UniProtKB/TrEMBL annotation:
Name of the gene: prmC
Pfam family, one: MTS
Methyltransferase small domain mapped to chain residues: 183-261
Organism: Arthrobacter psychrochitiniphilus
Xref: InterPro entries: DNA_methylase_N6_adenine_CS, HemK-like, N5-glutamine_MTase, PrmC_N, RF_methyltr_PrmC, SAM-dependent_MTases_sf, Small_mtfrase_dom
Protein name per its UniProtKB record: Release factor glutamine methyltransferase
Matches recorded under HAMAP family: RF_methyltr_PrmC (MF_02126)
Keywords from the named record: Methyltransferase, S-adenosyl-L-methionine, Transferase
Length: 350
């Protein structure tokens, strides 16, 4: 099979491999509420203070410094020329990160005599080279979580927030039915940065959450992000993980790798920086890991337990068929993300 460029996930005449690969959004943007438009989410400002420069300088000192407004304007032009999808937003977020302020506070500073922070040109150059914004700031936002991210771990995307919401909703319903003292068990298969497991653990009080990750690099990031959450984190293969929980789990959520082998990411951020282990699902059609996740979920869940798995829009029919033909699931459903695309498939364990 010939290899294809990665194209955006839209209804188009492109091959399935192209469309599946395009399901990975390249650059999420600044975060506001829990669910925001894609361009407003994962490029959120780090709350950790950077090296803060003075907000205002005396007139005699301004002459030798670059005004913040001019620096951000120039950075926007540099990023636009480099093909960065959201140049103005990224230019502002990088400056805000270094100054240790919110993007809103930065907006006010642009009208004053604030000067460009130390290191800003370097950060802009890295972003112009298409290093992901979150790798530069070291932070990605996911629902209510601030996650440490960097080389070797997949940056969580906004579409996954709606997938984990399905698992959280099911856990919340069980909590209401069983009472506050009841034990609830949830599992995240292929946790990556720990985003899904962390969300379930922090948003459903009293739940026992387990997560597994095979990648050495990603496991280290997950361990950092899940520290203090109560999540039980396993370094291993999802295919044989948590045998001691067989038949006892209430909810399993997974965002496994699912891109076909023939797909080549078009977006440089994804092609150069997202780990291939987190992208390619195995096999010509990318379905080896989704099949494995489905089998493990069936093994772990008790009858009546809930499983939901993320996938590409063009894989929705294939995933529904996988669930139905396995004989393990009732009430198989396809779920759309906030953009109206078929993003996940769920089932209830028979």
């Amino acid at each position: 099979m010939s290899r294809h460029d990665w194209t955006p996930l839209v209804t188009s005449p492109h091959s399935p491999a192209e469309e599946i690969a395009g399901a990975i959004s390249p650059e999420p943007g600044e975060r506001g509420p829990t669910h925001s438009p894609a361009e407003e989410i994962a490029g959120a400002i780090s709350p950790e203070p950077g090296e803060r420069g003075p907000t205002h300088l005396p007139a005699e000192e301004i002459a030798g410094a670059t005004l913040l407004a001019d620096a951000v304007k120039d950075a926007t032009a540099v990023l636009a020329a480099a093909g960065v999808p959201t140049p103005a937003v990224d230019a502002q977020l990088l400056a805000a990160h270094l100054l240790g302020v919110s993007r809103g506070e930065l907006g006010a500073m642009l009208f004053g005599t604030a000067v460009s922070p130390v290191g800003y040109e370097e950060f802009v150059a890295r972003r112009a080279a298409r290093e992901p914004l979150q790798h530069i700031t070291g932070v990605a936002y996911f629902r209510h979580l601030e996650l440490a991210v960097g080389k070797g771990v997949f940056v969580p995307r906004p579409e996954t927030e709606s997938v984990v919401q399905l698992g959280i909703d099911f856990l919340t319903q069980l909590r209401q039915e069983r009472g506050d003292a009841a034990k609830l068990i949830a599992v995240d298969l292929g946790t990556g940065s720990g985003a899904i497991a962390g969300a379930m653990a922090t948003e459903v009080a009293g739940s026992s959450v387990y997560a597994v990750e095979l990648s050495d690099d990603a496991f280290d990031w997950a361990a950092k992000n899940l520290s203090g959450t109560g999540v039980t984190l396993l370094h291993g293969d999802m295919r044989d993980a948590f045998a001691e929980l067989n038949g006892t789990v209430d909810v399993v959520v997974s965002n496994p790798p699912y891109i076909p082998a023939a797909a080549i990411p078009r977006d440089l951020e994804v092609r150069l920086h997202d780990p291939h282990m987190a992208l390619y699902g195995g096999g010509e059609d990318g379905m080896e890991m989704p099949v494995a996740a489905q089998a493990t979920a069936a093994r772990l869940l008790h009858p009546g337990g809930f499983f939901v798995m993320e996938h590409a829009e063009v894989q929705a029919a294939q995933m529904a068929e996988l669930f139905s033909k396995s004989g393990h699931w009732d009430d198989v459903r396809t779920h759309m993300d906030l953009t109206g695309r078929d993003r996940a498939t769920s089932g209830i364990r028979r």
